[in-house]
Design brief:
The complex is a heterotrimer of chains A (about 100), B (about 170) and C (about 450). Chain B has about 170 residues and is mainly alpha-helical. Helices cover about 70% and strands about 0% of the residues of chain B. Chain B has six helices and no strands. Chain C contains 15 helices and no strands. Chain C has three domains: about 55 residues; about 270 residues, no CATH class; about 80 residues, no CATH class. Classes of the chains: A mainly alpha (about 100), B mainly alpha (about 170), C mainly alpha (about 450).
Chain lengths: ~100, ~170, ~450
């Protein structure tokens, strides 16, 4: 195993790229995909520390995060499909029904 | 040495795919690059000797969630979306926020070991031959210590399934 | 740079044997797949009372080579508005996933490319599930409605039956307690009984689900020629199409190997550790001598000299294989190779039997309509597989309480299988009633657009 700093750097880099994706893109599906990227960055962090301390709890936590991500992706994409049926758009800027 | 080269290959692939993913105009290309990033992450898991998580990542994330994403992208694929502006109006603010975030991470990584109690721990990891068999260890932990969390996760997945079906149903 | 070279040398020193095996398999597999296609065509012909390919080579034995040459020299047509990157990538993904999953299989106790993976069988199943991407992206990249619908239908089918196949594997894995392929076969050797007898319902579910997983008839609606032209493969021609084809037949081999390993005893001889049945060791060489004798007897009836020489060559090849098979049994110096050689033979025999059953089904049963297919997957196989996991688990607890092992476990698992079958019949009956009710109502438009 490499020094833990390498894995933390990788995790931080993926996290930041994911955050940039969430804040900058207009397409809601790409925003959801960037959220998946953030979750993966967190997973790398957890597994790296699990390996450092020899404790498997980090991997179990990462497993739960993957299951959670699946549930969230399913529900999120269901919302997108329902919205698309009503408004014919997937751009975040145009989802402004609740704006004054 | 092999460990190091493998890590750099997978890490480089992950960061490059992630960067390409957030900048593609075509959503299907973004999805393909996310698949590559997820596969590289699975490779990192394998390099960290987390074999069960490696295969779970491939089965669930790549083989399940990404297929779902690609289905939805094909369902809502609009040709007109390809010509529109791709980045939102707040992109410069976003980049400043990202810079601030990376400065925070950089400070944390730089200050490791300089002051006791600050930054990341300077420990020696157990060598690979000392680790228990991975699937068995994860199973013991999952069905032993974290059984309640496991059951709650299955209820969560059931709720998500019902919710997704209800929301995506056509109104008749 | 120095570090990269050093790392490469270290990698090669450690892993030269698996790399070589992998290269050999990637080189030889297209030929093997070609001959499986020939066997299928000959079987199809036999079941339809005709002869099949007979022209190219004696009895059509060179037909795959002619097909390969034809496919390679065909023009490579790319549709007009197709996405070129994804169009190129899709068949590569399918073939890559299929070939990578072969790395986890074990043909004999010593023939494994990736040795002793902790997650053995899960690796094979998971990586072959990545082939769904090749199908989905291929259909999308073709920029054609037929292709897109075919790929969506095909991938929906694959995803649905993957859950049932996985649960069926889980109920088989309950009997071993480990995912490691060698440990699974050793557990069957230790118990002295193949797991197909301890978990027959799981084997049945895996059989049906694997037929659907590989898009074989009767679940081949996405690629049936009278339905959606060729589904997601419509716009691919020449070499790209042959890549998809290779991926499909490789998936067939992989799925048969997984079933053989988990349910049919892998590389074990029937009654592997029972000394009474040691005469079964002579069955492989006798079988090969029988094939050689058949070829010899057909030699005089060949029309031309070249074909006679070819038949003689095939006969002598079978005879040499028979000699190789009889050596570990008879000669003491070849005894250590017994497990490897005979193991390889029995494994290939069982995989071939499984594939023969696939082909037999193809030519016998009519095709399922797509909504019938999805109903079968979601409303029959998945509930049945979940009930089966429950029932096999209970049977295992009971048998470990009474300390039963080997054939004695049948006392507990047979009632369990009967309970699972009763549940299956109940689900089927309930399905029939609701089906009759639905067809009285207006036609449902599943996947109509």
């Amino acid at each position: 195993m490499l020094p833990i700093g390498h894995y933390l750097f990788l995790s931080a880099a993926l996290f930041i790229i994911g955050v940039i994706g969430v804040i900058t893109r207009r397409n809601v599906i790409v925003i959801l995909m960037s959220i998946e990227l953030i979750l993966n960055a967190v997973n790398i962090n957890l597994v790296a520390f699990s390996r450092l301390y020899g404790d498997v709890a980090g991997q179990v936590f990462a497993l739960f995060i993957i299951a959670d991500a699946a549930a969230e992706a399913a529900v999120g994409l269901g919302i997108i499909i329902a919205f698309f049926r009503n408004r014919e758009t997937v751009l975040a800027d145009e989802m402004d029904l609740l704006k004054w | 040495m092999l460990d190091k080269v493998l890590f750099y290959i997978f890490a480089g692939l992950a960061i490059a795919s992630a960067a390409l993913m957030v900048t593609r105009r075509n959503a299907v290309h973004s999805a393909i690059f996310l698949v590559t990033a997820l596969l590289a992450t699975a490779g990192i898991f394998l390099q960290l000797r987390a074999e069960f998580l490696f295969i779970v990542q491939i089965i669930l994330y790549v083989g399940g969630i990404m297929v779902l994403f690609i289905f939805v992208i094909m369902l809502v694929n609009l040709d007109v979306a390809l010509q529109q502006i791709q980045f939102a109006r707040q992109k410069w603010v976003a980049l400043i926020v990202a810079l601030a975030l990376s400065a925070q991470f950089g400070l944390m990584l730089w200050s490791s070991g300089k002051t006791p109690g600050q930054g990341i721990p300077v420990l020696a990891a157990p060598s690979a031959s000392e680790l228990p068999a991975n699937s068995e260890a994860v199973a013991q932990s999952l069905f032993g210590t974290y059984l309640l969390a496991f059951e709650i996760a299955s209820v969560l997945l059931l709720v998500a399934m019902i919710g997704a079906v209800v929301m995506a149903k056509k109104e008749r | 740079m120095q570090a990269v070279i050093q790392a490469t040398m270290e990698f090669l020193k450690l892993y030269w044997a698996p790399l070589l095996c992998g290269l050999v398999i990637v080189a030889v597999l297209p030929l093997v797949v070609g001959y499986i296609v020939l066997v299928e065509r000959k079987l199809m012909a036999d079941m339809q009372a005709r002869l099949g390919p007979m022209r190219v080579g004696p009895h059509g034995l060179l037909q795959p080579i002619a097909d390969a040459v034809k496919l390679l020299i065909k023009e490579d047509i790319i549709p007009d508005n197709a996405d070129k990157l994804v169009f190129w990538l899709a068949p590569v993904l399918s073939v890559g996933a299929a070939l990578l999953s072969i790395a986890g299989l074990a043909i004999g106790p010593a023939f494994q490319i990736a040795k002793d993976i902790n997650i053995g069988i899960l690796f094979v199943v998971g990586v072959s599930a990545m082939g769904i991407f090749g199908i989905v992206l291929g259909g999308w990249a073709s920029n054609s409605h037929y292709s897109l619908m075919g790929s969506l239908r095909s991938s929906a089918q694959l995803v649905s039956y993957e859950t049932a196949a996985g649960m069926a594997l889980v109920s088989g894995l309950l009997l071993t307690g480990t995912l490691n392929i060698k440990a699974i076969v050793e557990a069957q050797s230790k118990e002295g009984i193949w797991f197909v007898m301890l978990a027959p319902v799981a084997f049945f579910i895996y059989l049906v689900a694997s037929i659907a997983e590989t898009n074989r008839a009767p679940f081949d609606l996405p690629e049936a020629e009278s339905e959606l032209v060729a589904g997601y493969m419509t716009e691919f021609s020449g070499f790209r199409w042959s890549l998809y084809f290779l991926a499909e037949y490789t998936n067939m081999i992989v799925v048969s190997s997984v079933a053989t390993t988990l349910f049919l005893g892998g590389w074990l001889r029937p009654f592997a550790d029972v000394h009474l049945f040691n005469f079964l060791d002579y069955v492989p060489p006798l079988l090969m001598i029988g094939v050689a004798g058949y070829c010899l007897s057909r030699t005089p009836k060949q029309p031309s000299g070249v074909q006679q020489i070819f038949m003689l060559a095939v006969a002598s090849l079978c005879f040499v294989v028979a000699l190789v098979l009889v050596a570990p049994v008879v000669l003491p110096i070849a005894k250590p190779f017994y497990a490897g050689i005979h193991g390889g033979f029995w494994f290939i025999f069982k995989v071939s039997a499984y594939i023969y059953f696939f082909m037999w089904l193809r030519f016998t049963i009519p095709r399922y309509r797509f909504d019938q297919l999805m109903r079968l997957g979601w409303q029959f196989l998945i509930p049945l597989s979940i009930v089966n996991v429950l029932v096999v688990g209970v049977a295992l607890i009971v048998s470990s309480y009474f300390n039963l092992h080997g054939w004695a476990m049948l006392l507990v698992t047979t009632p369990a299988a009967i309970i699972a079958l009763v549940v299956a019949l109940m689900i089927l009956a309930a399905g029939q009633e609701s089906q009759a009710g639905k067809e009285n109502a207006a036609a449902s438009d599943f996947y109509a657009g």
